[in-house]
Amino acid sequence: MENYEALIATVALMMGVSWASGVNLYAVLLVLGLGGSTGNIDLPTELSALEDPLVIGAAGIMYFIEFFVDKIPGLDSAWDSIHTFIRIPAGAMLAAGAVGDVTPALEIAAGILGGGVAATSHATKAGTRLLINTSPEPFSNWTASLSGDVLVLSGLWTALKHPEVFLVLFVVFLMIAIWALPKLWRLLKIMLTKIGCFLGLVKAPPVTANDTDAMVLEVEQQKIDHIVALERLQQLRDKGALTEAEFEQQKCKILKASVDQS
Known about the structure:
The protein has 9 helices and no strands. By secondary structure, the protein is an all-alpha fold.
């Protein structure tokens, strides 16, 4: 039983630090460093360097900077872009250290998994924030940033205090990320293409045969919908549910919509 609990705690710590690193690396380093140095968190020996005052101080300074940068629309996305090359490797290193004193092969495997998890959480955060930045008001950006800070702190606390609960929530996060990331990527491609066309940096994509076929099918479907609507309207008139004047009025609206769409 003790071995099982130790395994669950180790896996939760490994996944927790790598996931949180993809969202806010400096918060992770600060929490682990302060928690380990005060005795509130029992860190593996491989992560004991985080308890050094120099590491805690550096993490604190960078967290202070990120706290404000992350709430400025546009600048936050630039910050995320730069940290693509920082958060993911750091998440891999923290995951490898979280498994403790094990074989080199197991450390490498943990690092690979940790890097993948950090990349997933980082891509989800960066893509979401880039879409939020299209909103002209800053309040949604501030809310998303503060929510990310709270999510990281609560997620780390759950991983350390309730590892089973964290692992269940982690699986839920992976399922949501698998569903959301392709949609985020498509939306980002559309947005970046429109921005590029507006600035004259890229040409508008040509209309392909598939696009033409899709447009024709859409027009045909609209015609069928209008015919069905007219038939239903006539049935209502025949049943006495509509007067002749109401029938003519609704028929004119349907025909006008059909002309406008064609």
